[in-house]
Amino acid sequence: MTARTGTPGWAMRNLVYGVSGWVTLLTYLFMLLPIAVLIGFAFNAGKSTVVWTGFSLRWFQKVVGNGNILDALQVSLFVALASAALSTAIGAVAAVAITRRSFPGRDLLAAALAAPLVLPEIVLGVALLVFMSFAGVTLGYATMIVGHVLVSIPFATLIVRAAASSLDPRLENAAADLGADEWQTFRMVTLPQLMPAILTAFILSATLSFDNLVMSTFTSGVGTTTLPLRIYSMLKLGITPEINALGALMVLANVTILLLVMGRYLPLMLKTNRQ
Hints:
This protein is mostly helical. The chain has helices at about 10-40, 60-65, 65-100, 105-120, 120-135, 140-165, 170-175, 180-210, 215-220, 225-235, 240-275. Helix 7 runs antiparallel to helix 8 (about 180-210).
């Protein structure tokens, strides 16, 4: 039975809902306030990051004209896209195999793919560095991509696996009844339904790789300094508005990508839910 209007239970329930709503709002404001301060002081005319002296775009111009930052950005983009493509491809294939097929060692494979989630990233980085040194592999793009794939592949697998588990097997059976072979069924029936999840896994993997600092510290070599490593080295000299401007540009890029993805796939997802 539900509490009637005016009863103590009804009043207590409304109080709990109201308090939880305000707590949620204040929590989000607390999380977003530092980002707002960072973006605001990116437009500060002076060098101070705590005292506002006027509006200016000079720090954005310094970021665009900084060759070290642009080189680090190119490295981060290349590593992020390459590792995200590999992580998503491996994770998607593994997720479909785990959810749609029965084979010896399936549970062991699922546990192995999720293992990096419960291991400290610094342990993974040290282990990979020791292995690469023992194998005589020179640190560079290849080692960094392998390290980033190791970190992001569990997330890609879990995202695609969740989507694959919710697929209706009757669609695949209907395709088989109509004469489609296994590859045609996967390409024309299964894959289109998994594309939103695959794109989500790719974006998340690319974001994790682009923002990664710990694994990059152990796997980067000469000439492969990523943007987080460059920012960390700049922070040793203190926080400057140039770093704020760089952070503001990164936030703008993330928001733009998010809006593009939502504009492309949100109507499709809402249409699917209505059906």
